[in-house]
Amino acid sequence: MAAQKQEKSVVWDWLTTVDHKKLGIMYLIAGTLFFVKAGVMALFMRIQLMYPEMNFLSGQTFNEFITMHGTIMLFLAATPLLFAFMNYVIPLQIGARDVAFPFVNALGFWIFFAGGLLLSMSWFFGGGPDAGWTAYVPLSSRDYAGVGLDFYVLGLQVSGIGTLISAINFLVTIINMRAPGMTMMRLPLFVWTSFISSTLILFAFTPLAAGLALLMLDRIFGAQFFIPSMGGNTVLWQHIFWIFGHPEVYILVLPAFGIISEVIPAFSRKRLFGYTAMVFATMIIAFLGFMVWAHHMFTVGMGPVANSIFAIATMTIAVPTGIKIFNWLFTMWGGKITFNTAMLFASSFVPTFVLGGVTGVMLAMAPVDYLYHDTYFVVAHFHYIIVGGIVLGLFAGLFYWYPKMFGHMLNETLGKLFFWVFYIGFHLTFFVQHLLGLMGMPRRVYTYLGDQGLDTFNFISTIGTFFMSAGVILLVINVIYSAFKGERVTVADPWDARTLEWAVPTPVPEYNFAQTPQVRSLDPLFYEKIHGDGTMKPAEPVEAIHMPNGSILPLIMSVGLFFAGFGFIMMNMENPIINPWIVAIGGLVITFGAMFVRSVKEDHGYYVPVEQVKADLKKGGN
């Protein structure tokens, strides 16, 4: 056991880190890279649809782009970007020094990243997957889809393992690592929504893993689970996928709800209205999220009884969601609102998400869904939820927590310009797509004929994507400019906020809290500002702090899973360079070998000496 932390090079430190704060930043960087990649694909697709009968992209390339855009945005961009904030903020908000299992936290990141790389490698082996992000069979069977679909199946399998173990880690952390006095009904809303989202991951990603395993067996080993001519059932895949797919929307939306529930009270200078109602509304949304999957399948012939049941369940979700909307509005009502960039994104989230919810209720009406289904109306609705909900929430969280994560502010002038350019571009892009859908334009088509009344709205939609792209470029400029010229943050709480993450110094010490805080109320930091001296009261004496050591094993295990997945994919390739079984088994040996090393190696971590802790406290630490 090392008495103190051993010094490492910067690169080695980041490759081996198990610190939740550094892993949060790594999730943020990785998610941003995938976000930009998927965004460029969306821009290219909209350019292809800017005019009738364009030849900017071929039909095959368009199919690959539309598949990869949706897959990357949901699995490799939105999820890790939310995990970035969950990793960084949750331990701080509950008064913990790290997550429950730091090693597993690092393993979750590297496995997710390995799965994303595996999926992305499809471009170098004959093209990306081309069956749509839902991978409906028989389009995704090996009779119709090439080896790119194998990268989809194995890439999502590997990435999903990382997401699943990270979610379990969050659950254990929130249940067991809360500071004294931090009861479940004193948890910040972001922690609550992250907790419930992690529960959804636990129960939704497992059926997805099972479905992907069955599809892999069909494609690689010749099984017939989804082949009708051999006794299989194509609709079975739809059920398996949407039992995951609809809760996935709430897996992403609920943490965004949590971000909004942190930002709006902070900049309205008011406690969140109806805290208890918000908690139970979140629980009800999560429960009903598993009850509505077949509203994606109204046109497959389930019958009027099944359609009616799922239609009613879908409409019911509007009730707890409406509770949240009104509570956010009541929080702002009468508040002393500061409209900085974070608050602009948070407040604009509310009406935008309402519009997405209203069109969702329209789609929930099964008879009318026959008209909407597979048209651009569905595309517009979905993006009003994903972009108008999740992405706006992510941007609000970025501007809110950026000073704590990086030690300097983002430029407010550039930030507000980014907001208006992106927000206007978003509505230009997707609002007119409602009209295109009502006019009958089908989605997932790479071109259309002229003189059908579709030209103008498609042109406007494409112009909107240029605005959104310009907005993202402004954000990148803001990040670079602020890194060199931005206002440095030397105080713990630049926003005069309410929760525990603003009680620790900036930059955050490796151990977060020199002394575990004693929580006395909801909004604990604000409570101490009103009823105390503005600092958290300690729940323990000053002692040496035990911290976990870094480890290279998570990276090694992710490399092993990468090669195992690639080996299975090679079984469907023509003339593979090396025996696929050697690659697949070799990858599994690397993975389980690293697990064995971890199990037999004693890793007691290191101690931050009590003298250093006391010195940090004298400097103003908490």
Automatic annotation (TrEMBL):
InterPro entries: Cyt_c_oxase-like_su1_dom, Cyt_c_oxase-like_su1_sf, Cyt_C_Oxase_1, Cyt_c_Oxase_su1_BS, Cyt_c_oxidase_su1_bac. It is a multi-pass membrane protein. GO terms for biological process: electron transport coupled proton transport; oxidative phosphorylation; respiratory electron transport chain. GO terms for cellular component: plasma membrane. It is found in: Cell membrane. One of its GO terms (molecular function) is heme binding. Residues 6-520 form the Cytochrome oxidase subunit I profile domain. It is an enzyme of class 7 (translocase). Cytochrome c oxidase is the component of the respiratory chain that catalyzes the reduction of oxygen to water. Subunits 1-3 form the functional core of the enzyme complex. CO I is the catalytic subunit of the enzyme. Electrons originating in cytochrome c are transferred via the copper A center of subunit 2 and heme A of subunit 1 to the bimetallic center formed by heme A3 and copper B. This is Cytochrome c oxidase subunit 1. The lineage of its organism: Bacteria, Bacillati, Bacillota, Bacilli, Bacillales.
